[in-house]
Amino acid sequence: MNARPRVVIVGGGFGGIECAKALRRAPCEVLLVDRRNHHTFQPLLYQVATAVLAPSDVGYPIRRIFRRDPHLTVALGEVVSIDVEARTLTIRGGSSLDEPPRTIRYDTLVLAAGANTFYFGHDEWSALAPSLKTLEDAVTIRARILEVFEMAEIVDDEAARRWLLTFVVVGGGPTGVELAGAIKELAVDALSRDFRRIDTTTA
């Protein structure tokens, strides 16, 4: 039996990664659980969303970060339940959706799972206004941005064209401001000579 206490960290974002790094020299076994096998550098997601960077530029394999830490293990999965009294958590996932849930014991549990975008009780809005928290989000937004320029190029109605070239960014924090500026930069600098029927600089 392993006498070293087990610390389970849920979340491979900034908080989870830094917590695991802080435990590098601690006399414990560390298990880091995340739904994805990569750490995403969220401050640069807006550049993926505007085709400045590739997804691989802001996603880094978690196992590579800790490849020299033999006491740390990465588990791919999603936490579905926590039993505080029994000091166990149940995770589901991995390579197959049919994989049965696994129960993991812990001595200390660190919850660093991050946050979700709040749609004020209207989750259906997410289909129209995707969040920008994951690589998948950024790729979705990039596809939509580029698609509307293509659609505007073949639309004859001027009002419809103006509507297609109107972008709304909800949120005036660092991410929102950077994203708005990057969309304008994309329209003015990168795409301005690529289309024949539309003036992308008016977007």
What does it look like?
α4 runs antiparallel to α5. β6 and β7 form a beta hairpin. By secondary structure, the protein is α/β, with parallel strands linked by helices. The model has no long low-confidence stretch (mean pLDDT 94). The strands form three sheets. The protein has a four-stranded parallel β-sheet, covered by helices on one side. The chain is built from six helices and nine strands; from the N terminus they run βαββαβαβββββααα.
What are the key terms here?
single chain; alpha/beta; about 30% helix; 3-stranded antiparallel β-sheet; 4-stranded parallel β-sheet
Number of strands: 9
Strand content: 15-25%
- The separation of the N and C termini measures 63 Å
Radius of gyration: 22 Å
Task: Give the helix/strand class.
Answer: alpha/beta
The helix count comes to 6
Strand order of the largest sheet: 5-2-1-9
Which blocks of ≥5 consecutive residues have pLDDT under 50? none
Query: What is the H/E string?
Result: EHEEHEHEEEEEHHH
